[in-house]
Fold each of these.
Amino acid sequence: MPETLKVFAPAKINLGLSVLGLRSDGYHDISSVMLPLSVGDELEVRPAPELTLKVLGADLPTDSRNLVYRAAELYFRAAGVKGGAQLTLHKVLPLASGLGGGSSDAASTLLALAQLYPAGVNLHTLAQQLGADVPFFLLGGAALAEGIGERLTPLDAPPSWLVLLNPGVAVSARDAYVWLDETGAYTPPLDAPALLGALAAGQMVPYFNALQDAVVVRHSPIAAALSALTQIGLHSLLMSGSGSTVFGLARSEAQARAAATNLQAQFPNWWARAAQIRSGLAV
């Protein structure tokens, strides 16, 4: 058993997000192509007598209010493990940003503990108890998410480059869906093959985000971030998830890295990163 296990917790983007409607249970049916990225948080896990969590890089709770801590509690309970772990979360991704950071951190916790304390536990079942996006991050690749996000169909995605830009505002996913419900502007399912085909060909990707208009009108910095991506020469701009991160596709790694550097210099209080889609088929 390694003394310390280090696990990468990737960010994700939504290559289009359709909200089909509101369900009777209060959740929403969605259709979204979800892609893991080369940027993310890092989790260190060390076997220990008790469960503890330390967070570096962000002011977050370190008890059961934190999804990482809850994921660990859930795993130990399901596995019947007596003992614990010393968890250290290095936060790189901005909070409440539409990049799935908390969900990815939770999934990475499950994966790490399953490696340190093997017990034949069904991680997908545990992930569903932690949040709609958590099961996706167990896959390790792109997927079409349907239902409330729990029905996942693995996809093959090209390793394209893009730029992420977060203007420093936090957006509640709950609020974003409430605002959409107020308008009733629900949307049809995405055409995943068409989106991935355009991405592979380097063309404008015909996607949309059903949440974007209602969020942007209430958070003007997001509109400014979209404008900044346009002005620097990126294409196929979109807000990821419920925001506030937006992204634009680049023609090459060099363009993505140069754009991210320029944007960070232009907006020093924002968060800008070049990122690559982690290619390959989810398993």
Amino acid sequence: MNLQVFRHHAPLGAVLLIIFVLALAGPIHTPAHYHAFADQRAWGALPRAADVLSNLPFLWVGALGLLGIGAGRWLTPPVCLAMRVFFVAIALTAVGSWWYHLQPDDARIVWDRLPIALACGALFAAVLEECSSVRPPLGWLPTLLLLAAGSVALTNDALWLAPGDLRAYLALQLGLMIVAPLLQWRAGLAWSQRRLWLAAVGCYLVAKLLEVADGAVLDLTQCVSGHTLKHLFAAAGAWFVWRAFRLRKLAGPALEAGAGRPAAQWTMRGVSS
């Protein structure tokens, strides 16, 4: 199989692999004692202050993205709308996670997961609208937002069918981290922009590892927990997404001057790389 054939089929292959692995794994549930975070230190009347306050960068990145979108004609309306929804969801992540960490329990964690899932769905929709010729009847954004909300509903322990199953929620995140970069590669998105998306994926992977090593990180550093750092790295990932979008925004004048070239091939300097 040559590289061109592999690149063409890689996104679909990744989707099938994710489905196969998660199906093979069986139901995945929230770990026992998940809500017992390592850093329980309060700041005055604010409980678990570090985990609560470390959500503020999400609010900052969300506002940064919304203020920087503008009305560039080099982004198609579906892509622009999906990016707006993404940055709104990132800002709401700060609110939902703040609310959850004030009193972590099964009821509140839904409001922590929901904006994260919606952000993943919106960002995935932006990539699909730009890099895929396939489009569902309603468009990718409504479709993926519904799937994202459904994936969070499946994590609810009150459901009779597969109660508390995290697989759909994880599949959405894995799809964004693995399939989306492959779609961008297949579409020929400039490396100067793809590397920023890969940096975002790297930050999110580190964030997930820090979440697992919550207590170990606090024991090691004696000052900050893994979960607190998870918030900071996840927000950094969203910032890298904003940087990738910012390059596209700055490429607009060059794109308009060189009409006929696909937007995905332009960098901040107006040339492909």
